[in-house]
Amino acid sequence: MNQRQIEVFRAVMIYGSITRAAEMLRVSQPAVSRLIADLESDLGFQLFVRSGGRAQPTPEAASLKEEADRFFIGLDRVEAAAREIRDLRRGHIRLATMPAVSFAIAPRIVSAFTKTNESVKVTMDVHTSPRIIDLLAAGQFDLGLAQLPETRPDIEILATYRLACVCAVPTAHPLAGKTEISIEDLAGEPLVALSHHTLASRHLAQSFLAADIRRDIKVESQPSYAACALVAEGVGLAIVDPLTADFFGRERLAVAAFVPETPFDIRLMRPAGVPVSRLTEVFAEQAMNRFAEHPLVTQIT
User: Which structural domains are found in the chain, ordered by start?
Assistant: First the structure.
């Protein structure tokens, strides 16, 4: 018994005659008759009683058709799934994003994508950059938005985006009215510093060392939104990424450009050396377009 025999059998059951089934299957009547005869031989019982040009199904045929229907419904589902995959209407995108990108850019990317791909499931998890790198390398996510201090053979960088860090100041602070705050302005000021293992913290440590200014660090915190919350409570000033500072709003924080310019780089990445779905490629392209539209972002690779 094979699939072609079952297909022909089901067609005869549906259309009530071998002639009509042959027409619908676009094969000859003898071919249909032969396939039915072969199927009956394989099964060991009669499926149809031929009379007056019609094929009257036996009770055994009626029972077999129930199973044949289930078989072809399964095939129909497989075909429907294949069409949905082909048309990018089925699948799962797994995105890992660092906190700074999770407030605005990543939600906008996901929102735009889901509007045009309504049946696609999207998972967006927020982790620290080191955790994202490890999860990507392990294949737990399709794409990641994070900082990467150095290249790794198991991570493929799709694009790198640069922002300039800003200085977040309590709204009642004397520096709150400035549009630009220099490193010299921070001499003697209480600071909320990002954790020492972050890239921004490393850049800032070098800048303060070069300016020969000692930092008065009251609190070390990670990630940037925790630092901004501490600034809003008057604990001190913080140099953070502009995305997080913007999310807090000017009613809670005063924000000024920081000099010397301190880069805050975000990389769009995926696991290296593994097959990539067409759906992931489309999502990555839309993500790059969204970054390109952002006024604070400059693409450097």
Answer: 3-86 (1.10.10.10), 92-161+265-299 (3.40.190.10), 166-261 (3.40.190.10)
